[in-house]
């Protein structure tokens, strides 16, 4: 695929794709007329890059992650964790809406109750 095609299908700008290519995150081949051609697998790679960027990884860290051998087992685990994360994000957004107008004592009570949970979440993130 040409860069414009992959940009349209992925929703990523051609400038960003060019940056990823120069950074070594994406591979392309040049035609005799100097067009860059990307394999279909680049769409999946762009999706992975977007997920990793949401996790605030640097370009160098993303490059390391992309370089690791991916098995079907790890792919399933990554997909499962990402789905759970998205579900939690939706729940957090709903709770933020509900708490927006709550009285201060209620907010304080909830904050104290969540301190223990925050420690568990921090421990889980540390494992990553």
UniProtKB/TrEMBL annotation:
Domain HTH merR-type: 1-68
Alphabetical list of InterPro entries matching this protein: DNA-bd_dom_put_sf, MerR-type_HTH_dom, MerR_fam
Keywords: DNA-binding
Organism: Planococcus kocurii
Protein name: MerR family transcriptional regulator
């Amino acid at each position: 695929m040409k860069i414009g095609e992959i940009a349209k299908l992925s929703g990523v700008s051609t400038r960003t794709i060019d940056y990823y290519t120069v950074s070594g995150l994406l591979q392309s081949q040049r035609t005799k007329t100097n067009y860059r051609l990307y394999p279909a697998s680049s769409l999946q790679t762009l999706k992975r890059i977007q997920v990793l960027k949401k996790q605030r990884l640097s370009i160098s860290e993303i490059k390391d992650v992309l370089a690791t051998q991916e098995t079907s087992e790890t792919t399933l685990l990554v997909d499962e964790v990402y789905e759970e994360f998205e579900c939690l994000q939706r729940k957090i957004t709903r709770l933020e809406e509900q708490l927006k107008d709550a009285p201060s004592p209620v907010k304080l009570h909830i904050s104290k109750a969540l301190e223990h949970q925050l420690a568990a979440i921090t421990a889980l993130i540390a494992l990553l």
